[in-house]
Each structure stands twice: as structure tokens, then as C-alpha cells.
Description:
The structure holds two protein chains of two kinds.
Chain A: H1 2-17, H2 20-40, E1 49-55, H3 60-71, E2 75-79, H4 82-90, E3 96-100, H5 104-110, E4 116-119, H6 124-147, H7 166-184, H8 186-196, H9 198-203, H10 209-239, H11 247-270, H12 275-292, H13 307-310, H14 314-326, H15 332-356
Parallel strand pairs in A: 1-2, 1-3
Antiparallel strand pairs in A: 3-4
Chain B: H1 2-13, E1 19-30, E2 33-44, E3 48-52, H2 59-66, E4 74-79, E5 82-83, H3 88-93, E6 95-98, H4 110-118, H5 127-133, H6 149-160, E7 167-171, H7 179-194, E8 198-203, H8 206-212, E9 215-220, E10 223-228, H9 230-235, E11 241-247, H10 253-257, E12 262-268, E13 271-276, H11 279-293, E14 297-303, H12 307-315
Parallel strand pairs in B: 3-8, 3-9, 6-7, 7-8
Antiparallel strand pairs in B: 1-2, 1-4, 4-5, 9-10, 11-13, 11-14, 12-13
Amino acid sequence: MIKRSLVLLRTNFIMLTRQRGLIISSLGLAVISMLVFGFLFGGSDSVKTRLGVVDQDHTSISTQVISQLQRSDALQVFTGSNSEEQQALKNGQRDAVVVIPAGFSQQLVQGNARLQVSYDQSNPVTAASTQLTVKAIVDGINSKITHQPGPVTLVQQAVAAKNLREIDFITPGMLGMLLMWANLAVGIQLVNWRELGITKRLAATPLKPLSMISAQVVARLALSLVQGALLLGLAIWIFNVHIYGNIGLLALVVIVGALTLLALGFAIASFVRKTEAANSILLLVSFPMMFLGGSYFNVNGAPSFLQPLIHVMPLYYLNEALRQVIYNGAGWNAIQTGVLIMLGWIVAAMLVVWRGFKWL
Amino acid sequence: MISQEQSQGQSTTAGERTVMVDVRGLVKSYHHKTVVNNVSFSVNQAEIFGLLGPNGAGKTTTLEMIEGIRKPDAGTALLAGLDVRRQRSAVQRIIGVQLQATALFPELTLLETLEFFAALYPRALDKRKLLSDVALEEKARAHPQDLSGGQRQRLALAIALVNDPQVLFLDEPTAGLDPQSRHMLWDIVMRLREQGKTIILTTHFMDEAHLLCDRIAILDGGQIIAQDTSAGLIGRLGAQATIDCRLDGRARQADIEALEGITGVLHTNERYLIYTQTMQPTLAALLAYATTMSIPLTDLQVRAPTLEDVFLELTGRALRSDA
């Protein structure tokens, strides 16, 4: 049994590594994009995020928040009235403005405090950097509130002086895109096996379809981890990209993301009979995700009519989670929503598979 | 051909043998169309059993139900006493299957393919030995798509043999092959029977069925319409010879049927197949008839009746549309 599982796994893995199209579209495309963007928009000076803070609460808690912000090396904090700071943001003198609304400290005690944040969207890279920084601060405050009420202290590590270069932004995005191409294609693989009659030949052996599918899934996960490690290794080696987060957590995000895209691939294979049709659907699904899922660009500033579309894309949540962990050093709290949404996608896709998937 | 026919006769009349495959009342319908209708037969150990019939007769569906690939609507098949419906895995461990077109993973070499299939069974034969048995040892590192049609069929056969099966299923093993490749495959199949393997094959080649099969079931429209040895089936025609000729439009079937010794007449347009018990008088009468009526008689052939004639007589149709 064990020997058989190993042979199944090894065979599936070997087959994947020999699919030139798969390797080029996943690792190849990601590496080339990373190199192009990395060298094209290479150097950039370390610039602090200029943060305008508007205190409408005027309590000891809001003062504590501001002093915590001022202590951060990554931030240059300005204080002023709401209209002054919003105007400064429009003039490009601030990267973001945070408003601490009146009643913030009371809401904090009740556990439903909200900060209003406005960003300068003119420069996507800065905007992304600012968003990540501010999000980390807010998450820091949130975790403090929910778990141990008391003086607000920010997670300093998350707000450490970091300079988001283009390469820092694009590396997690390329990892996400790589995972998409490597795993969504499982649908084509299955439709092709079925169309060629390979599944029929296997049906004449004692092999259970589930064994073969499991081996294929594990082989794709292994390939995802290997390719992801290669991509990140290159990014670290050539561009000094730093992984701030926990490697175990990063691996978890990679596996959840890969599983989500695998599940979608299986869903595609559940209602398509022809390889050609599977290919078309794959392109139809993956191209919008590739551009709107935030692999290449920061999509938070995309027009509002696109936002609903962006916010259903599993790749968007995968990219966000990867950026949080890789660049922002975020912990589980910052990524749990995204991970849960991906798990939701897996459940939805498995329902489609359960309704429509045919091995023969 | 005659001597082969005799050797076939001997092998089937040799003493009692164990029944290896017992097929009972198989039925399969698709979209309210019955593709296989109450098919039953049994095959003894070390016997080659042929399912003969035109395309769409239900040969492949019948095989796939016995192999456990498709579930029959009714009926079942016992292989070495195991019920394919209830003990599918156990059955599939003792059978080897060559599908009509065996599709294989294009990314794997021949050797890797055999290793993969070998891993699916509790025990397997030596992979390199299998390749050399089907004369593919030099192609061990090639990929399936680099093989010729004949080589690919031999590879499919090697894969079917990887678990040293007791029963072997070959679905049109020589379709689309050149004569040399067909002969090579026939040799391998006959060697396998000598090793004691039970073989069920489908074909629409009369000569193949005649040469290889100990017994033949003729399938048409999903039903077995005749089942016997090749010699037995031909004997049912009651004819000593087949006269194959061309007569123009003035010839009438009734006139020909009235000639001496005739057991049957078939014709399509101007081509006539005349079965006779008494070849010489019938031929003389036919020539006289053509001369008297001034009908030109062309393309005349006189030969021993074949399975093709049996099929024509049974169904009124040619076995292959191109025949």
C-alpha cells in the first residue's frame, strides 16, 4: 500500500515536471515578471509613510494611540484638524490620513471601535505600502482590544521601518500568480485524461479514482511549494527581498491558496467534457484574476464598479495574505479573513465537484 | 487455411476444461437504446474466444461490462468464480485489458508507464522482460506518442500483461495495423494461449477470428446471433463452395436460386454470392444460364465459404462497410 502510494505520488510529480507548458506558465512567467519589474523599477529610497492623524476623540486612549504612532520609525506623523489633513492628502503632502473619531475610546471598550483611513492612491506602490502599514497598526490595536483591554500598544515589529520597493510588492503577487497557474490547470489535466481515455484504462485496474486524484493533488502541492521556494529564493538572492513573516504561516497560506485553486480546477473539470473547452474556461477565469487579483498592481484603488468583482476573486485574498505575511510580517489575525474566504471557495467548488464530476 | 482450420477443430474438441469466464444475460442501454441485449457466453481456460461483429454491434460495451469498467443494467459476469459486480477489485486483479485505443500518459516513458501500472497490483512481472516479450526493449526510454501504431498496440498488450493476468481482454487488437504488425500480434496472442491464458478478443476481421479464435460469437445489434467454432459456423451454411460473381441487371435472383445444388443466394446490385452444396453442377448450370440469357458473367471466383459468408447469410449485411 505504502509503496503503491509512493509510486503514484512520484509518477504524478514526474508528469507535472515534464509538462513544459505548465512550468513556463507558472514558474517561468512569475520569474520573468519579477525580474522585469524588479530591474525596471529597481532602486528607491527609504521613505517614511507620511501619516496625518486627526484626533476627534481627545481622550487619554487616543493620545496613547498617537504617541504609539509617533514612536514608529516607519511613520512621519502630522496632527491637525480633519479638513487640514484631508487637504494635505489631496495636495500630496500626506500618504494617508487616519481619523480617530469622537467616542473612539468608549467604542474601544465595547469592542467595536473604528478608525477611518484615507489613502493617497496616486502612486500604487506607496499606496500599497501605506495600506499595509496602517492595516498592521489597526490590526495591532484590534488584537490588543479584543484580548487584553488596557493601554494601547502597537506591534512595533509590524510597523518597523520598511521601504516598500516595487520588487517587494510584486514578489508576493508573483507567488500568488504562480500558484494560480500551477494549480488551476489541474482541471485541464483531468479533462484531458478523460478525453484521451486514460481514466477508462485506469478504471480497468484495481486503482480507485480517489487514489489517483489524491496523488495528483499532493503532487501539485509539492510542486507549488518547490516552485514557490525557487521564486522566493531568487527574489531574496537577486533583490534582497526580505520575508518578515513566519515561514510556517507562509507555507500554510501557500497550501490553502493552492488547494483553493485546485478545487476551482476540479470544479471546471466537472462541467466540461473537452480539453479545448477546459482551456478556454481556464483562460477566462485566470486572466481577469491575474490582473484584477492584485498580482501585478495594487487593486485597492481600482474603480468602484470593479471592486465587487475583485472581492470575489480567490487570488485577491491569496495575494493579500501573501503580502501580509511576506512583507508585513503579519500573524494569523491579519490573514484569517482571507484564509476563511478561500476555505469558503473550496467548499463551494467541492459542491460543484460533488454534483457534476465524472471520472469516466 | 485448411490446415489451420483443422488444428482449430482439434483444440476445441480436446477434453473438459474449467470455465474461466461465465457471462450471463448482460444488458446495457444508453438513452433508451439497448446497446447490449441479453448477451451470455462462457469461455474455458486457455481458450481464445472471439466476439465478431460490425461497428456498433455492442462488442466493446460487452467487454467493458465484463472488465468492470461499466455497470450492466442487468446480468453479470463471473471470472474465475468472482462476480465482477460484487468483487470488482478482485476481478480486476486477475484480468489484463487492452482497450480499443489504449491511451497512456504522454509524459512517461514506456518503462515508467509499466512501473506505474505494476504498482497498481499486488504482484507484477519484470518490466524489462515484458518489453522484450513484445519486442519493445529498445524503446524503454521512448514515450508512447513516439511509437508506431503496431508498437503502441504491443505496448498496450505489455501493460495488459503486467499483473500476469489469468484472463486477457483484447479489443480490436489489430485494427489499423499493417499486415506485418498484425502477424506479430497474432504470434504473441497464440503464445499467450499456450501459457494457459484465457483470451477474449473482439474483431471485425474474419481472417483474424478464423485464425485465432477457438470459438466465435457473432454479435449484431447487441445480440449474439450465432456461437460456435469457426468450422462449425461455416458448416451451418450447408455449402461446399461460394461462387462469387457479377451478373448484369437482367439476371433474376429467383432464376439463380432454382439452379442445381443452391443453398442460398445473396446479391447487392450486380454482385452475387451463390452458396452451393454441389460446386461443379451448379457452376455448369450458372454458365449455361448466363449463356442462354446472353448475360455477361464477370469477376468469377469460386472458393471455400468463409466467416464473411456466414455473417452475410445471418444478417444480410457485409461485416465491414468497406468489404
